[in-house]
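Supplementary notes for students who missed Thursday's class. We covered one full example, reproduced here. Read the sequence, then the structure, then the short commentary at the end.
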Amino acid sequence: MIWTVLLLVNGILFFLLLSSRSRSKREPPLDKGFIPWLGHALDFGKDAAKFLTRMKKKHGDIFTVRVAGHYVTVLLDPNSYDAVLQDSGSLDFSRYAQVLMDRIFKLRLPNHNPTVEKAIMKQHFQGKSLTYLNSTMQRNLQALLTSETPPNQKDWKRNGLFNFCYGLLFRAGYLTLFGGEQNNNGADTKQIYKEYRTFDDLLTKMARTTLNSGEKRVAGGARERLWELLSPTGLSESSSPWLRHYRQHLREGGADTDTQTKAMLLQLWATQGNVGPAAFWLLAFLLTTPEAMKAVRREFNRLSLNTDTTQAPTLDPRQPTPVFDSVLEETLRLTAAPFITREVLQNKTLRMANGQEYDLRQGDRVCLFPFVSPQMDPDIYLEPETFKYDRFLNGDGTPKRVFYKGGQRLKYYTMPWGAGSNACVGKPFAIDAIRQFVHLVLTHLEVELCEPESGLPAVNTSRHGFGMLQPEGDLFIRYRHSIGNNIL
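Structure (token representation):
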């Protein structure tokens, strides 16, 4: 009994010790919350945008909050972001990334080197290699869309728009980047997509270690089935050059076969987890905003297409599409919500754009959340919560790239693709895939809302911090092959 009491007392003392931090004069405002150790973890995880907006109104553009035993300094001044993004000496990206890799994918890479991995991606997602990937992706999208809506089938089909977009783009992307793998247990892309969606639905809870016992079983089962589906006996020459190069890098780094397979699941999520949701939101905005739909259709109808006897006509990525580009940028402004996180390796003084300096403690984390600012900042955008398809167009129809806050021109006026070492190398590939997909859907299908007066579904706020937001539920559509259009 006495030992139980002593352990309890020691535990309480340790708990109080962790909760006893106070703010020094040169540090950002400190908000620990009312719950010892846990702090603001519940509000942060439930709706980070709402919580951090409230903290911003209370404390300003920089503050430190306690989240499940960790102290996180949140910076929400886009003019000061470079002070974090350009510091690779005192601030580190890879440590926290490795924590998430272990929690979500059960992956621990020996000799993990993000710089080398990014260099490999740059080699295969730029120049002639990008042209090859774009062409392969276009063929796969056309084939899948043809199987989904055969020209001789005139009846309407009904589906959720999110499932429609995510499914087709995921499957096309899988075939483009992973489809050359041998011996994937004979599974077709629909089966892989189904398992992936089960896994993806629980991803944020895996990251936050908040799965209940039943969810742990579901997530673990989906993860293991995906490992089986992604575990090849070898590579064929038809595998994407990026995939072959990446596997070679893993082997040379000492990764065994199981580790390589786990890394494939990580790459599957990294390459396919955002394109489908982005296309969903874009089409959802168009279907619920007739003026925007009319403008995009008008622009698409004026474009000339690549004509090749070996495949159906496709968009030339070199052709300017300023209206579509504005719609995409506005869509991403409203729905792309990644965190940019760094771990403080040593005590550091952070200098803000206004000249104010703040001390950061070793062992803390720093978090940028561009969704709150600049993307939803009312000091930058008029009516920031409203979709305006031409927000990123000048009056003469040219792309708008100049935005201000407080009279100062912004370097970062939206950040859906990250920045610095977090910048997305696959951005050109993703943009071309979304543009080709939307063009195919709008020019070769008749698409209607099942309920014309229905609005957009609510956002799943627990996805804040993990890339593209996803909806709660779906937006139901009906579609069929466009009569008189048989070029798919």
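Commentary. The first strand starts at residue 30 and ends at 31. The chain has two domains: 2-83+345-368, 114-184+230-338+416-481. If anything here is unclear, bring it to office hours.
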